[in-house]
Each structure stands twice: as C-alpha cells, then as structure tokens.
Amino acid sequence: MLSIIRTTELNQEIYDSIVRLWSATGISNPARSDSFKAIQQSLKHTGILLTAWEDDSLLGTLWLSHDYRRLYAHHMAVLPSRQSSGIGSELMQEAVQVAKELGYQMKLEVHAENLSAIHLYKKFGFKELAGYLTLIKRDI
To answer: CB 3.0–4.6 Å: which of 52, 74, 80, 123 could bond 63 by disulfide?
Structure first.
C-alpha cells in the first residue's frame, strides 16, 4: 500500500535513499548543490519533503519550499519502474494540498523535453508563464 509522508526532517539514511532515487531518474546533478546539509537547511526553514513509500521502499519524492507567497516544487521523481502508476499524481495532490493549507500559489520548473511530467502538471492545472525565461547563477 502506498503511503505519502510529509516531513520537515531528514536523516542520512533517508537522504541516501533519495539520492539513489534521483540518480535512477536522472535528476541528480552535482551543480544543483543538493547536499544533505543544503536539504536539511531548506527543511529547517520553509522546506517540506514529500516521500512516497511502499513498505520500506522509497518510490517517489517531491521537495517543496516557499517564500511566504509561492510554494515551489523541486525534484519530483518517481522510480522509473513505477512511473505512470499514479505515484506522481499522489505526490502532486499532496503538494497542492500543502499550497492550499498555506494559501500560496504554486510554481515549478520542468525541462521542456519531459513530456510526461508536463502532462502531469497540466492535469493539475499548471500553465506556462509565457514570456518568462529561467536564469540561474550557480558559480557563487
């Protein structure tokens, strides 16, 4: 049975499971600075981690943070062998519930080639922000 867990705490064992999942889905990238310490810091302040479990197996993650105005979705990932089984929808449903509880808009970024994720997000009512570009400076 699938369980969605909402938490603001992270231990090394769970982090290691998350990193393995992110690696399996191809979203792991050292340039993102998603270290144990960075995620703990996020969770200590405005972060919320949603994890999808079946028994003791981590099947999906969705990391949330906010700026007291918008809830941002980061690193939506579902184990490749379990994609298209409803786990992503369960995680998004919980994330939208968090946004409703906080009274915030919800915002996310998705790679233009990730058509299955785009389909999922549009199913939940997300729309493209026409005219906007995403810019980042990672070498600080």
So the answer is: 74
